[in-house]
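Feature request, filed as a ticket because there's no other form

It would be nice if the structure record came with a short human-readable summary line next to the C-alpha cells. Right now we just get the raw output. Example of a typical job, pasted below so the devs can see what we mean:
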Amino acid sequence: MSRHIEIKEISGGVLAAEGFVAAAMASGIKPPPALDLVMIHSQLPAAAAATVTKNRFRAAPTYVTQEAVADGKAQTIICNSGNANAGTGRQGMEDARRMAQLAAEATGVEPSDVIVCSTGHIGDLMPMDTVAAGIEQLGGQLSRDNPDKIARGIMTTDTVPKQYAVEFTIGGKTAKLGGICKGAGMICPNMATMLCFITTDASIDAKPLRDALSWCVARSFNCISVDGDMSTNDTVAILANGQAGNPTISDATSDDAATFRAALLYVTQELAKKIAADGEEATKFITVEITGAADYNEARTAGRAVTNYNLLKTAAYGGDFNWGRVAAAVGSSEVPFDPDRVSITISGITVFADGKVQDFDINAGRAKMAEKEIEIVIDLARGPESLTLWTCDLTPGYVHYNAEYDASELAGAEEENK
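Raw output as currently delivered:
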C-alpha cells in the first residue's frame, strides 16, 4: 500500500528553502534596465545534480556544469541571460570557466563547486568585462529578499517569471523545495532555450539526488514542447544543503527517497507546465495524456509525436475540432499499436474507439477547441504505462516573432522590469 504524501504549495521560489541566498542585477549584457545576471548560493555545502541538453551543438557552460556536479557537490550557481555562449569555440569555454572562477571568488567556494549557465543569442562572445564586474557586485548583494526578482533575472523571451515551491515532511522534519525556470521558445528539451534551478534544504546524498532528478526530468521538462526545437543550453540543476535536519537520504529505494521524489516531481511538473503555457505568442495550453503504453519510452515517443505535430497545433489555434490530426500525429510515432484498439478523447469527447469513429456533436467539439485549455487522451491499449505531456498552439504570431528574433528579444528585455 502506498503512503500518503502531503505536499503544500508555499511562496518563495528558489529562496523558499532555508540556507539559500541569491541576487539579480542589470549588468549590461542586455540593454538596461533589463535584469541579466543571477547568482544563487547555498550558505552550506550542498549535494548537487544536473541534467543538460543532448544537442550536439551544446553551449560551453553546459560542459562546465557537468564538471561541477561530477563529484556530487556544488554550492553556487551563476547564470546570465542575453548571451548563450554557444557556438563560441575555445574562447567560449575559457569564458565559462572564468565565470566559475569569478563566482567562486565572490562566494568563497572553489571554482569546481560553481554551476554556470547562459541563455540568449547563439554565436556571440561573452562581454567578459561586463560579466566580471557584475559577478563581483552580485557577491555583495546576496540575500533572501525578493525571489521574484531572481526569477525575472533569467528570462529572455518569457512573458512572465516562472517559480514554484512546496513544503513537505520527511524523516519527521519539515523540508522545503522550490525552483525557478525560464523558457518560452526553442522548447523541446531532451536531457535534459530552457533553464531551471532548484534548491532544497532536505538532506540527501548525491546519488539518490541524481537519480531523483533524472527520473523527475523525464516526467516533466522532457514532456513539454512549444515548437519542437531543442536548445543548445538546456540545463536543470539542483542543490540540497541538508538544513532541514532530516536523516540523510542515502538509499534511493527508501520511503524517504520516495517522499523526496514526489515533492521534486510536483515542483518540476508545475514549472514545466508554466513553460508550455507561456509558449511564444501561444493562445492555447494543451495537455496530452498517453495511457495504455507498454513502458515509459513508448508513452513518451507517442506523446512527443503529438505535442510536436504542427498540424494539430495549428488546428488548436484555429479552433478546428479535427480529430484526424490527433490520429495522424500519434500514428506518426512508429509505436506499434493496433489502431482498432486505440481510443482518442478530446476535451471529454470520445471521437474514436473500437476501431471506428464515434457519434459526437461537432459543434460541442468546436466549442471545446475554442477554450484556452485543451486535453487530449490517447489510450494505446498496449500496457500499464501512462504519461502526461504538455504543449501549446502554434500561431501566426510565433512565426512573426521568430522571424524578427533579435528585435523581439530586445523588446522583451525592455519590458522585463516594468
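Something like this underneath would help us a lot:
The CA atoms of residues 18 and 201 lie 6 Å apart.
Residues 285-394 form a domain with the Ubiquitin-like (UB roll) fold (CATH 3.10.20.340).
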